Amino acid sequence: MEWVATGVIALGVLMLLQPFWLVLYTWSFLTTLAGTALFMVVSKFPE
Prior knowledge:
By secondary structure, the chain is mostly helical. It is 79% helix and 0% strand. It is elongated.
């Protein structure tokens, strides 16, 4: 699950850095925030 959260964070950063579509730029912060929150939750799970 940490890989999924890391992927969501990376997707949010890529959405932030692309210069073409405003809608992706608009949703990039929420995507990065959701990935960070997901990572904080799943990192507490026992292995």
